[in-house]
Amino acid sequence: MIDTFYLDMDGVIADFDKGYSAIYNVYCRDDPDADQRWAEFVKNKGFKNLPTTKDFTVLTRKIFSLDVNVEILSSLSYRPDYKDVARQKYDWLEEHGLGHLPVNFVRAKVEKSKYANDTTLLIDDSPGCVNPFRQNNGYAILHTSARKTISELKCFEQKGLLCALSLDQEV
What we know:
By secondary structure, the protein is of the alpha/beta class. Helix content is 37%, strand content 14%. The protein has helices spanning 16-24, 34-43, 56-63, 82-95, 127-135, 146-158, and strands at residues 4-7, 69-75, 103-106, 120-124, 139-142.
């Protein structure tokens, strides 16, 4: 039975692509100047100011309707300003009503797999996080939209791996 969800931030609940491209008119992964712009993005509180993903409310409503612990599991970076990124991500969570959740930060994507076991599920938009998580016996959903993720969560429910909250439990 799955008892803990690890929820990624950038690309799942926070829209990094939209936030970055609004400033630089290019997605970070396609930006030949991304390395030079990183420090500026962090200095200008780029992570704190990211918009939510378009389906943030639908996804979080479903997640919190399930009888599981929910924690954040997000990558920072190996750059010297990783502590500033962490602070901005904490601020973002507070600002969007998720500041009560336990937060776990890793420096590299593959490190998320250290949290994997047969009672955990990772929701992440990166195959570089999802695949190692699965290889370490965790469950994982490659997030592309709330609709698809919720559909996969329903499959986990049907298999008896997830339970909805009972009516007397608080959502």
